[in-house]
């Protein structure tokens, strides 16, 4: 197409000594396409109407018609044709007279961007032939009637993803006649997990339904001992979301020619999802202050965030890991890349990627917060995307970790992945991208190190099992949890695990050996502690248990430290200190209780009601130190949701959201949000205050538009209480 650009267009191009045409990374921009492209001087008396002329093009683009049904795109709330690559679709062309194959010659042209070029895949001429080859561009006539023909068009299985403009060109002796620009025939082409030749092919229908077509998911949060879950609306089919997702690739300045490659798309998207470079979609905030924005815990889904960004072009405030992962999942599923949201419990944020999280103790065995820089996140969410990895050796395709949360830079930008899960499991961290960082997130050890007065470090305790002890995602076809820890690591202590670790170290993951730090732990005494389940605003107790397996009597000087923490494990304030001496009789167990009053923690509580408890004990007879740490979440009350009246498509009904304030204080600045993908767009309502023990009731009327099983999701946000959710599954009947 570019060869045919008119000369005045050439003059307008900015002069650039390095490339003949400017970079082409806007799917939206267009070029002028001449309706009559003459071969030379047009003779007098030439009348284009004497030749075959296109009167109309019919795209079969309604949700119930053949194209969207066969391509699994009938759920997109978008009036244009949406198809998946590597699979045939149909269009009908009406001419001004019957088509004569012997003498008439026409072809189709698909164009993308402002500088379409055939060798870049942005100008695609398709000549009508007699057979369609799988996974290659082509067209053949499948039906002729009167002045109409019906074509079956095959797209390439590696074709670029995005919105193409369609023209029909007819050859005459004096030039080429084209249809005029008509946006109604624009065609979106997406990835195709149903096509064996596509890089994102997934062979299990149930998994495709879950990882591509499900528009609601579950975010697992809380901590290992107390897994909590909440729903998240991905909303990848909602109005304008597809255009917003294509805009993200423009924003990331990904060349149009690179947009057929899921590896490239994932890599640039993991940077553009966060605002740390190039003003991406979401601004992160972990400091409990969310002025001029929405608290991360208040969002119920991705749609509001993506549409706000698409219209304002400014980062949306604010997000934390599950928000970045939720929006990233929407982006991937919307474009047709199978994707799932992952939660890694006790996730290591290792500042120097040495597989070692250092917690420093002072002389007495208490944790020294000044020296301790590493933090263990209660949980961290990332995504996995499914694709082949032709850039890696055989065997490393399949699920790839991608992470949009800005943690560390990779090649100069805040991004992470795609990193092969299989490579992480086997320790092959030499394979791009960012495998060592992910390996450390799931495999680090915790070192408790005491600083002597003269500056030497003594390793007192090593915890090899805490980090990455549970990695989960939503199960296929249900709301339950699926444990995928074994996809990331071999069983703790097995020979395979040792081998994977040695491989990772060989490939450059730094691991300090213990030999050079003369480490001899106390092996004949075990210490652990349990925390009573507690509801926010109540007192609860912590029980510390010692098991003395030896024949000796010991005394243990024990320090208990209770901290209010961000879910990233970073301490806001130590609210409880307690020390006592424990007498440990030979071959017996002894327990000690510590009571925690609500008055001690309520004033400083952060939004996820998250505590971090450290217990360290020094055995006085041997000088050895035992150390245990745990994250604990309080039970946060939930919202109650119910519907009133029958649930039928096209009939108005109402939903009622209720909440009772359980705290011993009034809640100020209360905001409720409610959404349901395919049911209703997000509605927000502000309530000034809810006094203690009083109940708030909110009724919302809506008219369901689609039948089937749907989900309503609500959240409540206030100054003193956040992370309050409720959800309800509803079955919408056909009228």
Key structural traits:
mainly beta, 4 domains, eleven-stranded mixed sheet, single chain, Immunoglobulin-like, 735 residues, disordered N terminus, Coagulation Factor XIII, Chain A, domain 2
Write structural notes for this entry.
It is found in: Cytoplasm; Secreted. It catalyses: L-glutaminyl-[protein] + L-lysyl-[protein] = [protein]-L-lysyl-N(6)-5-L-glutamyl-[protein] + NH4(+). The chain is mainly beta. The protein has 4 domains: 155 residues, Immunoglobulin-like; 301 residues, Transglutaminase-like (Coagulation Factor XIII, Chain A, domain 2, Alpha-Beta Complex); 109 residues, Immunoglobulin-like; 93 residues, Immunoglobulin-like (Sandwich). The chain has 12 helices and 40 strands. Strands 1, 2, 3, 4, 5, 6, 7, 8, 9, 10 and 11 form an 11-stranded mixed beta sheet that branches. Strand 32 and strand 33 form a beta hairpin. Helix 4 crosses helix 6. The longest helix is centred in the middle third of the chain and has 15 residues. The chain starts with 6 loop residues before the first helix and ends with a strand.
């Amino acid at each position: 197409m570019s060869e045919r650009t008119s000369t005045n267009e050439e003059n307008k191009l900015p002069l650039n000594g390095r490339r003949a045409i400017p970079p082409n990374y806007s799917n939206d921009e267009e070029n002028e396409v001449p309706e009559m492209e003459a071969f030379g001087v047009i003779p007098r008396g030439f009348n284009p109407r004497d030749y075959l002329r296109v009167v109309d093009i019919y795209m079969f683009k309604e949700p119930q018609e053949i194209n969207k049904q066969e391509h699994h795109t009938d759920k997109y709330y978008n009036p244009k044709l949406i198809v998946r690559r590597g699979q045939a679709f149909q269009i009908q062309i009406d001419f001004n007279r019957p088509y004569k194959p012997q003498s008439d010659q026409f072809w189709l042209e698909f164009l993308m961007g402002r500088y379409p070029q055939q060798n870049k895949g942005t100008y695609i001429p398709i000549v009508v032939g007699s057979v369609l080859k799988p996974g290659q561009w082509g067209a053949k006539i499948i039906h002729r009637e009167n002045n109409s023909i019906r074509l079956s068009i095959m797209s390439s299985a590696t074709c670029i993803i995005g919105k193409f403009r369609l023209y029909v060109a007819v050859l005459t002796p004096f030039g080429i006649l084209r249809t005029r620009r008509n946006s109604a025939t624009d065609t979106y082409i997406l990835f195709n997990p149903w096509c064996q030749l596509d890089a994102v092919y997934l062979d299990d229908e149930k998994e495709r339904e879950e990882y591509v077509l499900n528009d609601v998911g579950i975010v697992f949060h809380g901590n290992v001992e107390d897994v909590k879950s909440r729903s998240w609306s991905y909303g990848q089919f909602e109005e304008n979301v597809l255009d917003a997702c294509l805009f993200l690739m423009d924003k990331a300045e990904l060349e149009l020619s690179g947009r057929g490659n899921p590896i490239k798309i994932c890599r640039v998207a993991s940077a553009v999802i966060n605002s740390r470079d190039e003003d991406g979609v979401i601004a992160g905030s972990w400091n409990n202050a969310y002025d001029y924005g929405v608290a991360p815990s208040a969002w119920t889904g991705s749609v509001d965030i993506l549409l706000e960004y698409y219209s304002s072009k400014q980062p949306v405030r604010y997000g934390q890991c599950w928000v970045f992962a939720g929006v990233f999942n929407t982006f991937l599923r919307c474009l047709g890349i199978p994707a799932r949201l992952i939660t890694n419990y006790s996730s290591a944020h290792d500042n120097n990627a040495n597989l070692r999280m250092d917690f420093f103790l002072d002389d007495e065995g208490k944790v020294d917060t000044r020296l301790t820089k590493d933090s263990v996140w209660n949980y961290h969410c990332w995504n996995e995307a499914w694709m082949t990895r032709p850039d890696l050796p055989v065997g490393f395709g399949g699920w790839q970790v991608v992470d949009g949360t800005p943690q560390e830079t990779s090649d100069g930008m805040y991004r992470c992945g795609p990193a092969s899960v299989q490579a992480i499991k086997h320790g092959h961290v030499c394979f791009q991208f960012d495998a060592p960082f992910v390996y450390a997130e799931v495999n680090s050890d915790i070192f408790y190190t005491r600083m002597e007065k003269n500056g030497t470090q003594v390793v007192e305790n090593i915890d090899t099992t805490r980090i990455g002890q549970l990695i989960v995602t939503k199960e296929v076809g249900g709301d339950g949890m699926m444990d995928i820890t074994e996809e990331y690591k071999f069983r703790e202590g097995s020979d395979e695990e040792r081998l994977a670790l040695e491989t990772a170290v060989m490939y450059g993951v730094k691991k300090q050996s213990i030999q050079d730090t003369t480490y001899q732990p106390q092996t004949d005494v075990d210490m652990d502690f349990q925390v009573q389940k507690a509801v926010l605003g109540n007192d609860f107790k912590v029980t510390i248990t010692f098991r003395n397996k030896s024949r000796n009597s010991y005394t243990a000087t024990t320090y208990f430290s209770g901290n209010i923490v961000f879910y990233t494990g970073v301490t806001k304030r130590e609210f409880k200190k307690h020390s006592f001496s424990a007498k440990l009789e030979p071959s017996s167990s002894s327990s000690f209780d510590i009571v925690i009053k609500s008055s001690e923690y309520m004033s400083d509580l952060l939004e996820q009601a998250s505590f971090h408890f450290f217990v360290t004990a020094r055995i006085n007879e041997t000088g050895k130190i035992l150390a245990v740490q745990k994250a604990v979440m309080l039970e946060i009350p939930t919202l109650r949701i119910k519907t009133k009246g029958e649930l039928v498509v096209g009939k108005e009904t109402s939903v009622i959201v209720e909440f009772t304030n359980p705290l011993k204080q009034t809640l100020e600045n209360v905001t409720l949000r409610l959404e349901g993908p395919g049911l209703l767009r997000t509605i927000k309502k502000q309530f000034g205050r809810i006094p203690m023990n009083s109940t708030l009731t909110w009724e919302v009327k809506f008219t369901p538009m689609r039948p089937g099983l749907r989900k309503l999701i609500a959240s409540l946000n206030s100054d003193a209480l956040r992370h309050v959710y409720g959800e309800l599954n509803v079955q919408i009947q056909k009228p």
